[in-house]
């Protein structure tokens, strides 16, 4: 029944659109601020991690990983657990005259505030077994997980070369 131009189907459609719009999660400014804060914390941790890795500080380099973290190094098996990560980083630090650097190109934190990812690039140079200079470039992805104490730690570390 239409009373003064009232169409129940149109009213139902309008009500459904309003309900869907109300339920759609839009980032609120406080949520955006929280994500920006978390992303800044991860960028700072990543920059510090890059410094200690460049300095070949094994213990500090390993300290950036969560207990259950896994590394996915190129041309090698997955390294899960503290011993496997130690063995992998020991091998990574072994070349003569190693110079290493990396830079984050993107960091994005989940709305939940407990996970984030970072992408970036790296460069390294060293001398091979014959003493010849070698230069390697590559890219990486790190999945960060917020720990119970509020600190961000790497849960997954994947990297490979461009060659």
Describe the structure.
The protein has 163 residues and is α+β, with helices and mostly antiparallel strands. The protein has one domain: Nuclear Transport Factor 2, Chain: A. 36% of the residues lie in helices and 37% in strands. It has 4 helices and 6 strands, in the order αααββαββββ. The protein has a 6-stranded mixed sheet, covered by helices on one side. Strand 5 and strand 6 form a beta hairpin. The termini are far apart.
Keywords, separated by commas or semicolons:
single chain, 4 helices, 163 residues, six-stranded mixed β-sheet, Nuclear Transport Factor 2, Chain: A, alpha+beta
Total count of domains: 1
For the biggest β-sheet, the strand order reads: 2-1-6-5-4-3
N-to-C CA distance: 72 Å
- The CATH topology comes to Nuclear Transport Factor 2, Chain: A
- SSE run: HHHEEHEEEE
Could you tell me the strand content as a percent range?
A: 35-45%
- What does the overall shape look like? globular
In DSSP terms, counting alpha (H) and pi (I) runs of 4 or more, how many helices? 4
Unreliably modeled segments: 18-24
The major sheet is characterized as:
6 strands, mixed
CATH architecture: Roll
Query: Share of helix among residues?
Result: 25-40%
The Rg value, from CA coordinates, equals 24 Å
Report the mean per-residue pLDDT as an integer.
Answer: 87
Helix/sheet category: alpha+beta
In total, the number of strands is 6
Which CATH class?
Alpha Beta
């Amino acid at each position: 029944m239409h009373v003064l131009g009232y169409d129940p189907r149109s009213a139902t459609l309008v009500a459904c659109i309003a309900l869907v719009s109300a339920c759609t999660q839009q980032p609120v400014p406080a949520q955006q601020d929280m994500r920006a804060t978390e992303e800044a914390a991860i960028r700072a941790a990543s920059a510090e991690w890059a410094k200690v890795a460049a300095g070949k500080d094994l213990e500090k380099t390993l300290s950036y990983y969560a207990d259950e973290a896994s590394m996915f190094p190129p041309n090698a098996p997955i390294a899960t657990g503290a011993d496997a990560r130690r063995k992998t980083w020991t091998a990574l630090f072994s070349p003569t005259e190693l110079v290493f650097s990396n830079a984050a190109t993107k960091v994005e934190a989940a709305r939940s505030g407990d996970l984030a990812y970072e992408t970036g690039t790296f460069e390294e140079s060293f001398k091979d077994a014959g003493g010849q200079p070698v230069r390697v470039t590559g890219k990486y992805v790190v999945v960060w997980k917020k720990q119970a104490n509020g600190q961000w730690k790497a849960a997954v570390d994947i990297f490979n070369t461009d060659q």
